[in-house]
Design goal:
With about 325 residues, the protein is α/β, with parallel strands linked by helices.
Length: about 325
Amino acid sequence: MSSPATPPPRPRPSRRRFAIRRLGALALVLLVGYSLVRVVGGALSDDDGTAGAGTAEPEGVAGSDAAGAAAAGAGSSGDGSDDANESASSAATTEPVSTEPESTGPPSSQNRSTVFIVGDSDAGTFGPYLQELLDGTQVVDTQLDYKVSSGLARPDFFDWPAEMADKLPEVDPDIVVATFGGNDAQGLAVEDGTFVVGDPVANESEWSEEYQQRVGDMMDQLTEGGRTLVWVGIPNDDNPDVTARMSIQDQAAKAAAAERPDVIFVDTWTRFSGRDGGWAEFVIDPRDGQGKDVRAADGFHLNTTGAEILALDIAQEIRDVLREQGAEI
C-alpha cells in the first residue's frame, strides 16, 4: 500500500507584496485612531456646553451669561450657577438708597399734623370741642391728656415734666396745646412733697420767680425739637382773694412766654373779663354775637359755652400756624 501524497509547498510572498501589506495595515490603524480622536473630541465638546461654529444663540442670552460668569468668578463655590443668577438678579433690581431727608411737605389730608392737648381740668373742659374743630380741617390728628387737680405747683401729686418725658416721644406731636395754673395759686412743693415757697401773695417775689422758672422749663420741654406751643392762660375767679393769688400766677406765666417769642400765649384772663377788667359771668359768643353765661357754678371754671368759646380762640391760633406751614384750609 502506497503512502498519502504530500501537498506542494505554498509560494512565499515577494518583498514588494509584503511591504504593501504592512503599509495597508498601518493606514488602517491610523484611520481608526483618527476616527476615535474625532469621536472623543466631539463628546468632550458637547459636555463642555461649547456651541458649535454654526449654532445660533437665543437672543439676549449672551448678556445674562456674561453677568453670571462675572458673578461666578467672584469666588463662589461649586459651579456657581445659583450664586451667579442671584447676583445678576440683584444687580438688575436693587435701587440706590438715598441718604437725603424725606420732605414731608405742608399739612394735608395725606400728611396730617398731630396736635397734642395737655393739662389740668381746663384742658378736659375745652379739649373735646377743640378736637372737634380741628378734625374739621381734615389735616389734623389730635390726642388729649389731662389730669384733674394737677398743675406745676405740686409734682408730688402729679409730675407733669415726667409725664411729658414719657408721652412726647410716643405721640410725637407737631403742635402742643397746654394749660396749667388753675390749681397752682398755692405754695410750691418739690417731688418729695417739701414746700420750697409758701403762699404767693405773702411771698410774691420769690413765688413769682420760682413759678416762672417752672413754666419756662415746661415750655422748653414742650417746644423741644421745633414743636409749636400754644400756651393757654387761666381765667380769673369770682372770689377776690383767689383772684389775687391767681393774678400773680398768670403774670408769671405771661412773663415766661414773653421770653420765648415762639410760644403763642392765649390770654384767657382778658377774654373772660368784663369791660372794667374784672370778673365777668357773661361774654359775647362769637358764633352768634349773643351775650351768654360762660361760668361754671364754682365761679372759676368755664361751663360748656365758655369752654367752646375758648376752644374757638385756640383753634384760630392753630389754623394760623397750619396756614403758615402751607396747609390749604
